[in-house]
Amino acid sequence: MRTLHPRARVIEAFRRTYGAKPEFLVRAPGRVNLIGEHIDYNGGHVLPMAIDFGIWIALRPRPDDQVHVMSLDFEDSDVFILSDLEKGEPGWIEYLKGVAWALQASGRRLCGWEGTIAGNVPIGAGLSSSAALEIATM
Predict the structure, then answer these.
(1) Which residues pair with 138 in a beta bridge?
(2) Which of 42, 56, 61 is nearest to 132 (CA)?
(3) pLDDT digits over 20-66, tens only?
(4) Do 24 and 7 form a contact (C-beta atoms < 8 A)?
(5) 30: left (phi over 0), alpha (psi -120 to 50) or beta
(6) Chain-centre distance for alpha carbon 96
(7) What percent of the chain stands above pLDDT 70?
(8) If one looks up domain 6-137 in CATH, what number appears?
(9) Is residue 129 a contact partner of residue 79, using CB atoms and an 8 Å limit?
């Protein structure tokens, strides 16, 4: 059986979960550093390059400040409240909460949303799957 592309997976899962078509579909690519791995945050020079693998999110806004999200890759779902962010156990949802915290700290007003997430960036392979998740969330 052929595995669906992450784009198709998130759309199909969104329709199945929420009974409607998503209002937004976003994608952020993974990346590889051709030179300079791990020196960028120390002020060194890097040469990053986007790759074909990425993270997809199908979503729609909510009228409240709750975020309801399902990770198809981790076969897990979670909920958090934007006005009451709390650090939890390490895991994929903490990246979304971190993005929300940073945006709110910079003065952005956020609304809740519900969505599904999937990707094809190999996790733990140094291809910035967590960064792609954060950028797609942003």
Answers:
(1) none
(2) 56
(3) 999 999 999 998 877 766 666 777 777 788 989 999 999 999 999 99
(4) no
(5) beta
(6) 6
(7) 95
(8) 3.30.230.10
(9) no
64's CB contacts (< 8 A; 6+ apart) are 111, 112
- Residue ranges per domain, the chain? 6-137
Residue 131: exposure state from Cβ atoms within 10 A (0-12, 13-18, ≥19)? middle
- Cα distance between residue 50 and residue 53, in whole Å: 8
The amino acid at residue 32 is: V
d(CA 53, CA 34): 16
User: Residue 29's Cα: distance from chain center in Å?
Assistant: 11
Q: Which residue has the tokens 């990770």?
A: 71
